[in-house]
Amino acid sequence: MAAQTKSGKSLEYALAVAIYDKINNGQRVTIQKDSSYKNAKKSFESYSKIEQEKYSKAANSAVNHIVTLEPRLENPVNDEEIMISIQSDQKGTHGDVRDVLMVRAKNSWEVGFSAKNENNAVKHPRLSDKIDFAKQWLGLECSDEYMKGVSKIFGNARLLVKENKKKNHKLLWSEVPKKIEEYYVPLLEIFENEICSLIENNKNVASLLLEYMIGKNDFYKIMKYKAIVTIQGYNLHETLNIPSNSIMPQNKVPKLKFPARINHIERENDNKTIITFDKGWQISFRIHNASSKVEPSLKFDVRLVGVPPTLYSHNELW
User: What is the distance between the alpha carbons of residues 102 and 97, in angstroms, rounded to a whole number?
Assistant: First the structure.
């Protein structure tokens, strides 16, 4: 397991345990101990006791603040049971970025956390000649021109792999002399052109693109750094910060607005494109090879580099 994946899973486990300990105050609360939970626990327990304590302290600090925003966590409506679970990674590919989920099923209420350890990445989608990214991300369809373009780029990658396989050699991206010029740059160019084409044909591209990247459900993003944990509230559908009967949240998590348009698309360098929306949103797409060996796909590291000024954000020392 990659170090970043292991650290993220460990934070998920620490958050699940922290919220259980915090709200287990006489109400009915259960942790779902399925394979996702067990994998996260295994990652957490692979660290030293000192490192485990750091994760637990950060998680406790985050949870202590979030219960002031979400009174339904500690105060059930009609004594409804609350179920805590760690979601599978597959949920993210279908638009749900929440890692830890708390659900009161009979009340149709839930709240979730996205856990990040020392990073603020949003998503890591792939581009390849086998992926129609518009269909996967937006429910639309890429043009024939785009699919032909990616087929040419990744067809060359397949040819390189095939030629080196005959020589019994596993080709690495570091051995490709013009990786930037022949793969990164042309792929970004046809990606940018396709986004522009999609905008011309569908007025909802801006909101659909943002929703795919940050998730279809409202959530709290919890980012653990050295000595500080940052909590952000992504309240686009107004499902966060809801009172529990007469008990009100101690702080307000403002509703955020979806963008209505893309203002411009700008190339920052040979491997990064910045898309700027209205309403204060800005997203960076950095292309990179996810694997050291050459394969017919490349990956985006997607990050929010601009957010609305109304985004709820709070830092807690741990």
Answer: 14
